[in-house]
């Protein structure tokens, strides 16, 4: 079993307190990082092969290095705690059970990018995680860790999946509706309030103190050749022990399902959504893949947010498609026509197929609209939506055709 | 429904100014202040939108655009409690439709509506990210896990 790093204190009821965090080595990485040059911190994170754990899997150190060197005004660090990808629940645990790991990671990251003011954007529904994290921030101020070079503002969202997209999040943080922005310019050049901004996921930043304390080589060695470390898998759906599992990113999907107790329901696997609902589904015979960003990309899907949703044989894929199509239709921000129109129509079609009123051409229409629309919008939301649309139909077409023939 | 006077107290106005001062652009405090407005006035009416707009030197149209974009702001009066059942994938697989049907029957209202006595607003919502405890729901500020119809009944008794 992999050593627990991010979750090592999760079993302790008082793990969220500053005293326990310090007792277990907390804030020693910050002490070390204070003596390092900012560029040295970024180099260490690059060498560790840390990649973004919110969804996109972008190399974290490289992202940090995009902040223009000649910029003289403020630089912002924004933590994306707008967890919302269906099937994902790891950041909720990190905020509630180890909030100081995030704060310490922020101190180090802020030094690397020369940031003096950081924001933590927590989804509005996360009332308890918000309360826990805000209390930890207050304790960090009282202890003199914050307010002496870095200030943290805890910001509460108001309910919108699209605000998990980094430019949508920035719009929302600025007090607007959460419409994504055209890139370039990328946030690292021109982000929040028009200034260079690094947006990182909670879990990504919570890894940083461990990299500084134990070294890039150690961290890189925990994972695969192109992605270092462990990550927290959220496993749900038809498994015997749903929950969070911290594992090497080199674990296979089959091993991970075993760790979660194996398949429940009728005990026989039909398919797995491996990285949140936007990740294309894998069939039962496709689960011998490693769970790192490149392993899953090579398997035609994505690691995404590491939210693993398991379907046993009794799950109806057309019904699952209706549920996810309803989600994307509801959450499309409406800015780009292909996404706004297609998500709505595909939801309606998925409903009528399920109700036995599907038309013969419906499946090909959904596939056609999905394939032609992907890549034509401002953000990756629609690209994510077509992941399930295409893969559910292409891999389980028989199930849909039975309903349409009825 | 009694009308609440749409105006913050002096303490609340000080809090608005504190929030505005946290950001490089004071307008970034709009979402937190709208949360305050909803907590104070019960919902964010058009009148409340206009009032908040004056605190930010924004047009009421901008504030309306923001209020209508997000799911957590209520434009109409809501019940004293909000029961929001997750209907996304993992909860669906674990029986969320049965939980929603049960609540509709117990409360006598369809999804999206409030009981006649103003006690409970029933919603079905997208993923609340607690899939390991599916099916689940949010009751006001609290997450309620691993629901069964019996557990739902016990929770409803608490909500007065």
What does this structure look like?
The complex is a heterodimer of chains A (406) and B (160). Chain A is of the alpha/beta class and 406 residues long. In chain A, 44% of the residues lie in helices and 12% in strands. Chain A folds into 3 domains: 18-222, NADH-ubiquinone oxidoreductase 51kDa subunit (Rossmann fold); 230-312, Ubiquitin-like (UB roll) (Roll); 317-405, NADH-ubiquinone oxidoreductase 51kDa subunit, iron-sulphur binding domain (de novo design (two linked rop proteins), Up-down Bundle), CATH 1.20.1440. Chain A is built from 17 helices and 9 strands. In chain A, strand 2, helix 7 and strand 3 form a beta-alpha-beta unit. In chain A, helix 13 (317-331) packs antiparallel against helix 16. With 160 residues, chain B is α+β, with helices and mostly antiparallel strands. Chain B folds into 2 domains: 10-69, Arc Repressor Mutant, subunit A; 81-158, Glutaredoxin. In chain B, 45% of the residues lie in helices and 11% in strands. Chain B is built from 7 helices and 4 strands; from the N terminus they run H-H-H-H-E-H-H-E-E-E-H. In chain B, strand 3 (137-139) and strand 4 (142-144) form a beta hairpin. The model of chain B has no long low-confidence stretch (mean pLDDT 96). Classes of the chains: A alpha/beta (406), B alpha+beta (160).
What is this structure's SSE topology?
The complex is a heterodimer of chains A (406) and B (160).
Chain A: H1 18-23, H2 28-34, H3 38-47, H4 60-65, E1 76-81, H5 90-97, H6 99-113, E2 117-122, H7 127-142, E3 151-156, H8 166-173, E4 197-201, H9 202-214, H10 216-222, E5 230-237, E6 243-248, H11 253-259, E7 269-273, E8 282-283, H12 293-298, E9 307-312, H13 317-331, H14 337-354, H15 362-373, H16 381-395, H17 397-405
Parallel strand pairs in A: 1-2, 1-4, 2-3, 5-9
Antiparallel strand pairs in A: 5-6, 7-8, 7-9
Chain B: H1 10-21, H2 30-41, H3 46-56, H4 60-69, E1 81-86, H5 89-93, H6 96-107, E2 120-125, E3 137-139, E4 142-144, H7 149-158
Parallel strand pairs in B: 1-2
Antiparallel strand pairs in B: 1-3, 3-4
Helix pairs in contact in B: 1-2, 2-3, 3-4
């Amino acid at each position: 079993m992999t050593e627990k790093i991010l979750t090592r204190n999760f079993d302790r009821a008082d793990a969220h307190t500053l005293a326990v965090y310090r007792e277990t080595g907390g804030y020693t990485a910050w002490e070390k990082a204070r003596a390092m040059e900012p560029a040295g911190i970024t180099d260490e994170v690059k060498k560790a092969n840390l990649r973004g754990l919110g969804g996109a899997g972008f190399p974290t150190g490289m992202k940090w290095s995009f902040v223009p060197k000649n910029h003289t005004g403020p630089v912002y660090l924004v933590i994306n705690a707008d967890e919302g990808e269906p099937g994902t629940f790891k950041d909720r645990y990190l905020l509630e059970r180890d909030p100081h790991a995030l704060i310490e990671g922020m101190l180090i990251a802020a030094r690397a990018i020369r940031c003096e003011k950081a924001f933590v954007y927590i989804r509005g529904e996360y009332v308890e995680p918000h309360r826990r994290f805000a209390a930890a921030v207050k304790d960090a101020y009282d202890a003199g860790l914050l307010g002496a070079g870095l200030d943290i503002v805890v910001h509460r969202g108001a309910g919108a999946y699209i605000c998990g997209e980094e430019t949508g999040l920035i719009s929302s943080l600025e007090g607007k509706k959460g419409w994504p922005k055209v890139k370039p310019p990328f946030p690292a050049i021109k982000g929040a309030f028009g200034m260079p901004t690094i947006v990182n996921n909670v879990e990504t930043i919570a890894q940083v103190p461990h990299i500084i304390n134990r070294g890039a080589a150690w961290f890189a060695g925990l994972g695969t050749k192109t992605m270092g470390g462990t990550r927290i898998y959220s496993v749900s759906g038809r498994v015997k022990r749903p929950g969070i599992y911290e594992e090497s990113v080199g674990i296979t999907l089959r091993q991970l399902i075993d760790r979660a107790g194996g398949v429940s329901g009728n005990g026989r696997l039909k398919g797995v959504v491996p990285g949140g609902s936007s990740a294309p589904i894998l069939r039962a015979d496709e689960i011998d893949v490693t769970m790192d960003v490149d392993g899953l990309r090579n398997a035609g899907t994505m690691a995404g947010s590491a939210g693993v949703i398991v379907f046993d044989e009794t799950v109806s894929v057309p019904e699952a498609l209706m549920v996810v199509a309803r989600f994307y239709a509801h959450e499309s921000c409406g800015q780009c026509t292909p996404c706004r129109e297609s998500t709505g129509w595909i939801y309606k079609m998925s409903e009528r197929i399920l109700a036995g009123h599907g038309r013969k051409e419906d499946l090909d229409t959904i596939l056609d609209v999905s394939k032609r629309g992907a890549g034509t919008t401002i953000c990756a939301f629609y690209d994510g939506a077509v992941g399930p649309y295409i893969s559910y139909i292409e891999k389980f077409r028989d199930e849909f055709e039975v309903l349409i023939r009825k | 429904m009694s009308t609440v006077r749409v105006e913050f107290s002096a303490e609340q106005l000080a809090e608005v100014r504190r929030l505005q001062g946290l950001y490089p652009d004071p307008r970034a405090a709009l979402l937190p202040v709208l949360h305050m407005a909803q907590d104070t006035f019960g919902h964010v009416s058009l009148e409340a939108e206009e009032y908040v707009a004056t605190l930010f030197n924004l047009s009421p149209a901008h504030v309306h655009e923001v209020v209508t974009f997000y799911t957590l702001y209520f434009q109409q009066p809501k019940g004293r409690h909000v029961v929001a059942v997750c209907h996304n994938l993992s909860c669906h697989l674990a029986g969320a439709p049965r939980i929603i049907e049960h609540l509709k029957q117990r409360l006598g209202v369809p999804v999206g509506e409030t009981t006649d006595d103003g006690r409970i607003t029933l919603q079905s919502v997208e993923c609340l990210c607690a899939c390991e405890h599916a099916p689940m729901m949010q009751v006001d500020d609290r997450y309620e896990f691993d629901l069964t119809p019996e557990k739902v009944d016990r929770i409803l008794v608490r909500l007065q």
